[in-house]
Every structure is written in structure tokens, then in C-alpha cells.
UniProtKB/TrEMBL annotation:
<dbReference type="InterPro" id="IPR036271">
    <property type="entry name" value="Tet_transcr_reg_TetR-rel_C_sf"/>
</dbReference>
<dbReference type="InterPro" id="IPR004111">
    <property type="entry name" value="Repressor_TetR_C"/>
</dbReference>
<keyword id="KW-0805">Transcription regulation</keyword>
<feature type="region of interest" description="Disordered">
    <location>
        <begin position="1"/>
        <end position="23"/>
    </location>
</feature>
<feature type="DNA-binding region" description="H-T-H motif">
    <location>
        <begin position="46"/>
        <end position="65"/>
    </location>
</feature>
<protein>
    <submittedName>
        <fullName>TetR/AcrR family transcriptional regulator</fullName>
    </submittedName>
</protein>
<dbReference type="Pfam" id="PF00440">
    <property type="entry name" value="TetR_N"/>
</dbReference>
<keyword id="KW-0804">Transcription</keyword>
<dbReference type="InterPro" id="IPR001647">
    <property type="entry name" value="HTH_TetR"/>
</dbReference>
<keyword id="KW-0238">DNA-binding</keyword>
<dbReference type="InterPro" id="IPR009057">
    <property type="entry name" value="Homeodomain-like_sf"/>
</dbReference>
<dbReference type="Pfam" id="PF02909">
    <property type="entry name" value="TetR_C_1"/>
</dbReference>
<feature type="domain" description="HTH tetR-type">
    <location>
        <begin position="23"/>
        <end position="83"/>
    </location>
</feature>
<dbReference type="InterPro" id="IPR050109">
    <property type="entry name" value="HTH-type_TetR-like_transc_reg"/>
</dbReference>
């Protein structure tokens, strides 16, 4: 069977499949896919797991969603849509903060999301996830008062920063949670390693080692975003 299609046995030989008592919907399939992805990553999203959880057959899932790639795209878009659903505000910088934190928290809560975002944006720049991200962030970047000729570049820079920083934080979070000692001990160990570097070759890294040990991820994320926004407005609105 085609690799892109959900594959795998759904029941043991001779075992009857439990029957659904409620209609199967596309949204229900996508929600279940997100749950499976959260629990086991992309490897956990199999036909067997999905059909057993939904008490249905693979044909019904394929009819409503399509291939596994299409299901991954739908799951990614559903999480992004929820992350971008923030309270409206008249302050565009505060709005960018809210959207950015929504994505930051979503990638932390869904460890598979950062990889899928990179995949969806690269493979389908015209797809719904890319358009949703660009529209959400772009409206607020435009509201900063930037000239139209700068909208694409400025929004791209913000989106790349947000997704890159959030993705790195998510990977670090996954690794940190695998350690018994936790985040504090993990950062302390890394900072100590920086402090032990050669003072001539790594003078800067040694100098900021204490800041690595004590930093707050969300505060650093927003501070970096503000540096970017200040730079964007300084370049494109030099008189303001």
C-alpha cells in the first residue's frame, strides 16, 4: 500500500471490531490524531491506533481525511488555529506578543508540532497552515504602520523567529523532561560547562554563563521578539 496512506492492522485475527454509536466526523478524527501524536509522536499515529480509538475502519477515515500526510496537515492546522485564537487588542505589539506566545506554548505542549510546521510550510507554502500563520502575524505587523513594500519581509522575519525559537525551546523541553533532575539542574550543568571553557577562546560564552543558568524561557523569547520588532520599525519607520 502507498506509504503516504495510513497502514497497519486494525484488529487481531478473529477479533470483532467494536461499533461506533455516534457519527464519525472529520473534526473527531483530527482531534484523535492530535491525541495520538501527543502521546507517541508521528510513529504513534497508525491505522491500528486510530481505528481502535475511533471504533471504525480505515476506509471511513480515508474517506473523510485522506492519506496520513493529509491527516498530519489537518492536525497541524487545527493546533495552529487554536494557538492563534487570542483575545483581540488595539495594540499591535501586544497582539504580536499574544500570537507568538500562543505558538510558543503550543509547540511546548505538542512536541511533534515544530517538525510538522517546518514540513507543512516547506512542502505547502500555499496550504492552509502557512496562510493562517502569515495572515495572523501579518495583520499585526501591518498594524505597526509599516509601508506596504515591507509587509512580506517583516512578517517573514517575525514568523521565522517565532517558529525557530519556539521549536528550539520545544526540543529542549522534551529532552529536559527525560532527565530525572529537571530543567534547573539541566541548565546548571550546561552553565557550569560554559564556565569551564577556555577563557581565551570562549571569553564571551563564559561571561554569559550565569545568565544561561538563571534565564526564563518565555521572558527571553519575548525580549528577542521585541528586539526584532524594534529593529523592523527602526528600519521602515525611521522618523517614528
Amino acid at each position: 500500500m502507498c506509504q503516504a496512506v495510513l497502514v497497519g492492522p486494525t484488529t487481531r485475527p478473529g477479533q470483532a471490531r467494536p461499533r461506533r454509536t455516534d457519527p464519525l466526523s472529520r473534526d473527531g478524527i483530527v482531534r484523535t490524531a492530535v491525541e495520538l501524536l501527543d502521546a507517541g509522536g508521528e510513529a504513534g499515529l497508525t491505522t491500528r491506533a486510530l481505528t481502535e480509538r475511533l471504533a471504525t475502519g480505515p476506509g471511513a477515515i480515508y474517506h473523510r481525511v485522506g492519506t496520513k500526510d493529509e491527516l498530519l496537515a489537518a492536525a497541524t492546522d487545527s493546533v495552529v488555529a487554536a494557538a492563534l485564537d487570542v483575545e483581540p487588542t488595539d495594540d499591535p505589539r501586544a497582539a504580536v506578543h499574544a500570537l507568538a506566545l500562543g505558538l510558543f506554548d503550543a509547540t511546548d505542549a505538542h512536541p511533534w508540532l515544530s517538525t510538522q510546521l517546518a514540513t507543512q510550510i516547506s512542502r505547502s507554502p500555499g496550504g492552509p497552515t502557512t496562510a493562517r500563520l502569515f495572515e495572523g502575524l501579518g495583520r499585526q505587523v501591518r498594524a505597526l504602520g509599516l509601508p506596504e513594500r515591507s509587509w512580506f519581509t517583516a512578517t517573514s522575519a517575525v514568523m521565522h523567529y517565532v517558529l525557530g525559537a519556539a521549536g528550539l525551546n520545544a526540543v529542549a523541553g522534551v529532552y529536559g523532561r527525560t532527565l530525572d533532575a529537571g530543567r534547573t539542574s539541566f541548565l546548571d550543568s550546561a552553565a557550569t560547562a560554559w564556565e569551564d571553557l577556555d577563557p581565551d577562546e570562549y571569553s564571551f560564552t563564559r561571561a554569559v554563563a550565569a545568565q544561561l543558568r538563571d534565564h526564563d524561557d518565555r521572558e527571553e523569547f519575548l525580549t528577542g521578539l521585541d528586539l526584532l520588532l524594534v529593529g523592523i520599525t527602526a528600519v521602515h519607520l525611521p522618523g517614528r
